[in-house]
Amino acid sequence: MQNSQYPFMPVVKARSVIWPGSQKTMGELLDNGCLTIKDLQKGTANEKDNVRIASEVLLADQSQKIRDYINKGGIPRTLDEAYEVRWPFDKRTGMPNATLRDVLNSRKINVNDLGYAIWSLASSPQVRQASIIILNHLTNVEMRKVAKGPGPLCVTADYSSYMTQEGEKYLQKRGLILGASLASCFFVALGYVIWFANHYTISGFIHELINMNWLSWIVLIILALIVLFSINKIIDLTLFKKIDDIDAAIDANRKGKIGEDRVVEALRELLDGSCHIFRNLHIDKEKKWDVDIALVSPWGVYALEVKNLTGEYEIADTIVTKKFGKKIVKLKDRENPIIEARRHAACLKSFLDADFSRNNDKAFVEPIVIWANPDIKAWDSKAAIKCWRIERLSEELDSIRTKQKLSPQGQKDIIERLLKCYKN
Known about the structure:
Blueprint: H1 11-15, H2 26-31, H3 37-43, H4 49-71, H5 79-83, H6 90-93, H7 100-105, H8 111-119, H9 125-148, E1 154-157, H10 162-199, H11 202-210, H12 214-270, E2 276-281, E3 291-297, E4 300-307, E5 312-317, E6 319-324, E7 327-330, H13 337-358, E8 365-371, E9 377-383, E10 386-389, H14 393-400, H15 408-420
Parallel strand pairs: 1-2, 4-8, 5-9, 8-10
Antiparallel strand pairs: 2-3, 3-4, 5-6, 6-7
Helix pairs in contact: 3-4, 8-9, 10-12, 13-15
């Protein structure tokens, strides 16, 4: 078989090339399942020309074979084949006909979705098997972290977080408003019934209505319509508007939690036990706000501000604007993720200053905004701080893994100090 892109190296010859660090050919490793698409992708950047070209040839050949097999309805047998299966539940992802590799890389789905696909009656055998293979792979990755390294990423969470408390407050407000409104209507109706009973009998009231002339009927109907219209407008502008505002706040709170869960899930895959993250970290006594995610790592301490937003945003230094059609609106400070992240990082640094000083570490907490929704359109290259997209989280984390900025003892002291925040 000849590859049209590389006529000078057919597939047969590419399979005979020795894989670096091994005594076996690439063909042998492929047949034994020891060489994956990911390995071949890395091989395309190899310094040796024959390895690089062979990797490119075999990558194209294997990718096409896998696509053909899966598109014909074949049940996946390997991880690469599982990743090529189409994800059927595209209403949630907004990515029709996307492969599992695509939706997982974009962070549109996570392990919970894979679990749902395994048990859902709407899933085909192909999707179920692919989900099982990928979940097994992710489990094995975590087990290897335990067996060969510092273990899985440490996560500390406070489930009575500020976000959760705010969500509960919004629900309580909604219930109180609806309850008070219904109670008011009941007592008004009861008062009218009592007044009516003291002034009319049923027969007397009917007699009054029968004796009214046509002009009185018209006036009465017009007055009744005006009263009903006025009451409807008053309710729309007060009660319903208040309820809509609370519903919007509840929805924003829910989306915020989904975004944080999505980021934490991604961090679990990409980091190991050498790091520790703290969710919804309270460092103020009144607990009026919290740090979405505090990352304590050998490379430093980071305050991650997670935003699960939709729409179009542009950031210049610390100014954030949002586009509504042709209208551009500047976000207020309390809605500005750059200002929020900076404030939280400054407070966290102040809280940890003693630990930094004691271990002669640089007293610095870096603020970072993470866009947790892959669909957001954010022009943030001119932002005052780093802004990371969740689908590029792996590359972004690689950019900070440059050198050790925090001493082992300093990292230990900071972790111990932050753990105490969850005990109060």
